Amino acid sequence: MTIAISLKVNDGVVLAADSASTLVGRDETGGPSGVVNVYNHANKVFNLRKGLPIGAITWGSGSIGPASISTLAKDVRRRFSGKDPDHSDWHLDPDNYTIEQVAERLRGFIYDELYVPAYDDWPDDQRKPDLGFIVAGYSSNAAMADEFQIAIVNGDCEPPLALRQGETSGLTWNGQPEAISRQLLGFDPALPDVMQNLLGVPQDQIGPAIETIRSALQSPLVQAAMPFQDAIALAEFLVDLTIKVSRFAPGAPTVGGEIEIAAISKHEGFKWVRRKHYFQRDFNQEDFRARYES
Fold it and tell me: Distance (Å, rounded) from C-alpha 52 to C-alpha 139?
């Protein structure tokens, strides 16, 4: 599991995630057989085009076949940068692109080119891996940022969904949602099932009851006009909250590792706020600088 946050305010978008990657074993039928290990060095936040205010965050499956999502994100970034001669038409013109077009391209690459062929022979009675992305940033000459979500659910993938466009602000969290849902909404995502199956609440009353609970207990922490630094701090807090809950909850700590944060603004573009590195700076000065600026 993971926690992946996209938080939009007037000054830009913050992308924040943990670094855990869970390896799940398979039984003789190919079905899941439990957690084998949890690795805490996965990359889930990406700059999709160096020099442009475009980023993405991912959750769900950490790979498609043998290739990690991190490597695949760099593959598509190469296309957007015009460095792939076989896909020269993918090159993004800084003066003529939209975030929606970027999201559509990413969906085509991840889902149509890679995911569908990889799971074409997957057994019909087994659920296919889920995988999601949010593409966020500024279209050419745009005053405000946009966010689009790509969701692969059991092998199906709809076109990119517009989350927030123009002046709309807010927060989206994906992966392991319980801790943030309780903090912000005042209830666990499992509450509707508890109401129906354990309390016997009629189905037609659950929706209105949930809205009443949300109205009474929610914590409106995201404000459109909040300073960008405070939006960054809020995103970090919510990821850290989920990590700590996962640490102390029974079972494997499936959210953890270092927190990575990227901030995307109109004038500064895509900037890393926090990022882990797997090599020492003293030995790789040029590589460190290039990775930090990517």
Answer: 9
